[in-house]
């Protein structure tokens, strides 16, 4: 164990000096500086995207597609995290719903049919970016409060796995309920150009994705185009700290083997203050309401799963949500 840690430490020390470059790449639209290869050369992807997609990442996740829906397989951590994703979305949306104005009926009066319809919350349209095999997308589509889910991923093999798994559930048979598209966020607008429902959504999700793209600022800029006024962007990622390197790269991949090797590149992790800086810089241009921005740290506890831990966003995994101005 010590020898493995000693072998990995020099690589970590070299990347520390690059931190300011990565922070600049996140807040600007410049691509991240090239990092030393951390995984074997990958097979060329089936499609070539002009985007922030990394070909090695696509190849890596395509190789994991067959075990995506195994709750004890390579995606076990994602299965365990899924309930917290929904909890965080509900927390974000509850803040905006509680601040909205409501009409109070007269005492002892019965609400009219029109008033009842007015107070019924409209069903939500979700866009799940980097959906993988569909763990979150399927669960969101089954919610009674959901109108539809559009889920996209640049990995063709994973999208096929997602479609096959969803086809087993009659509740998801309606074509407009859950739609999987093999595309990138950069190409999504043209794909949805003819959609009668448009290309803007109530909730846009980005779970464990941004740490796998090459141009995070450019990626977020394209995402913002698909969040409707009053809608939410909700994401999760990992802080770039010594602790996160030890837990996700060394322990999870090298020692315990609970995450496939090569899944994480510590260089691409993003601290919450870097994301705050991005949304602050582009608040006026993209319409973000900075007062709505929320962050929640989560920690994986072996045997218990993921737990919310206040302040842990500074050392490891965390959720972040921000709302567009209505």
TrEMBL record:
Its main location: mitochondrion. S-adenosyl-L-methionine binds at residues 85, 130, 153, 207. InterPro entries: SAM-dependent_MTases_sf, UbiG_MeTrfase. The keyword Metal-binding applies. Residues 105-114 have a biased composition (Polar residues). Its cofactor is Mg(2+). Keywords: Magnesium, Membrane, Metal-binding, Methyltransferase, Mitochondrion, Mitochondrion inner membrane, S-adenosyl-L-methionine, Transferase, Ubiquinone biosynthesis. Pathway: Cofactor biosynthesis; ubiquinone biosynthesis. One of its GO terms (biological process) is methylation. Pfam families: Methyltransf_23. It catalyses: a 3,4-dihydroxy-5-(all-trans-polyprenyl)benzoate + S-adenosyl-L-methionine = a 4-hydroxy-3-methoxy-5-(all-trans-polyprenyl)benzoate + S-adenosyl-L-homocysteine + H(+); a 3-demethylubiquinol + S-adenosyl-L-methionine = a ubiquinol + S-adenosyl-L-homocysteine + H(+); a 3-demethylubiquinone + S-adenosyl-L-methionine = a ubiquinone + S-adenosyl-L-homocysteine. Residues 96-121 are annotated as: Disordered. Mg(2+) binds at residues 208, 211-212. Its EC number is 2.1.1.64, 2.1.1.-, 2.1.1.114. GO terms for molecular function: 3-demethylubiquinol 3-O-methyltransferase activity; metal ion binding; polyprenyldihydroxybenzoate methyltransferase activity. It is an enzyme of class 2 (transferase). O-methyltransferase required for two non-consecutive steps during ubiquinone biosynthesis. Catalyzes the 2 O-methylation of 3,4-dihydroxy-5-(all-trans-polyprenyl)benzoic acid into 4-hydroxy-3-methoxy-5-(all-trans-polyprenyl)benzoic acid. Also catalyzes the last step of ubiquinone biosynthesis by mediating methylation of 3-demethylubiquinone into ubiquinone. Also able to mediate the methylation of 3-demethylubiquinol into ubiquinol. This is Ubiquinone biosynthesis O-methyltransferase, mitochondrial. It comes from Rhypophila decipiens.
């Amino acid at each position: 164990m010590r020898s493995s840690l000693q072998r990995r430490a020099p690589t970590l020390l070299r990347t520390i000096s690059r931190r300011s470059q990565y922070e600049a790449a996140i807040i600007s639209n410049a691509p991240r500086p090239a990092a030393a290869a951390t995984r074997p050369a990958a097979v060329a992807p089936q499609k070539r995207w002009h985007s922030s997609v990394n070909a090695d990442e696509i190849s890596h996740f395509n190789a994991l597609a067959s075990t995506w829906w195994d709750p004890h397989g390579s995606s076990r951590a994602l299965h365990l995290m899924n309930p917290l994703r929904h909890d965080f979305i509900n927390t974000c949306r509850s803040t905006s719903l509680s601040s909205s104005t409501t009409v109070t009926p007269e005492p002892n009066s019965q609400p009219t049919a029109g008033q009842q319809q007015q107070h019924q919350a409209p069903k939500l349209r979700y866009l799940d970016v980097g959906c993988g095999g569909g763990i979150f997308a399927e669960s969101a589509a089954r919610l009674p409060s959901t109108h539809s889910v559009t889920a996209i991923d640049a990995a063709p093999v994973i999208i096929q796995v997602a479609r096959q798994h969803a086809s087993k559930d009659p509740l998801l048979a309606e074509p407009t309920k859950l739609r999987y598209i093999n595309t990138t966020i950069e190409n999504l607008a043209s794909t949805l150009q003819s959609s009668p429902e448009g290309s803007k959504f109530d909730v846009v999700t980005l779970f464990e994705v941004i740490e796998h793209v090459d141009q995070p600022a450019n990626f977020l800029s394209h995402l913002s185009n698909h969040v409707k006024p009053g809608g939410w962007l909700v994401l999760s990622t990992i802080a770039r700290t010594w602790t996160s390197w030890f837990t996700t790269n060394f322990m999870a991949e090298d020692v315990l083997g609970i995450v496939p090797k090569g899944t994480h590149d510590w260089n691409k992790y993003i601290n919450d203050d870097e994301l705050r800086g991005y949304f602050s810089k582009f608040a006026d241009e993209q319409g973000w309401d900075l007062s709505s921005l929320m962050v929640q740290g989560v920690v994986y506890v072996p045997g218990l799963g993921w737990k919310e831990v206040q302040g842990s966003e500074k050392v490891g995994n965390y959720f972040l949500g921000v709302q567009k101005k209505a």
